[in-house]
Design brief:
InterPro entries: bHLH_dom (IPR011598), HLH_DNA-bd_sf (IPR036638), PRE (IPR044293). This protein is mostly helical. The chain is built from five helices and no strands.
């Protein structure tokens, strides 16, 4: 409870209920798992936020996997080749 009070007393602007509803609605449309459901299906804000966290974790894993694959590919090509330069630019 004291943690909640300290967050509320911070200098951050307070988000209204309408703004929160709007933001959760926007997140809902961005999430593949939820946006595929019918519009009439009710999904709680906590479910949307949990799915958002899961989706971000999934995207991080995909980025890590792609980075690893590009690194492996870079190791397999001539260091001075055009392909190596393209791969290096993708890793930046």
């Amino acid at each position: 409870m004291s943690n909640r009070r300290s967050r509320q007393s911070s200098n951050a602007p307070r988000i209204s209920d309408d703004q929160m509803i709007d933001l959760v609605g926007k997140l809902r449309h961005l999430l593949p798992e939820i946006s595929e459901r019918r519009r009439s299906d009710k999904v709680s804000a906590s479910k949307v936020l949990q799915e958002t966290c899961n989706y971000i974790r999934k995207l991080h894993r995909e980025v890590d996997n792609l980075s690893d694959r590009l690194s492996q590919l870079l190791d397999s090509v001539d260091e001075d080749s055009h392909e190596a330069a393209v791969i290096r630019s993708l890793l930046m």
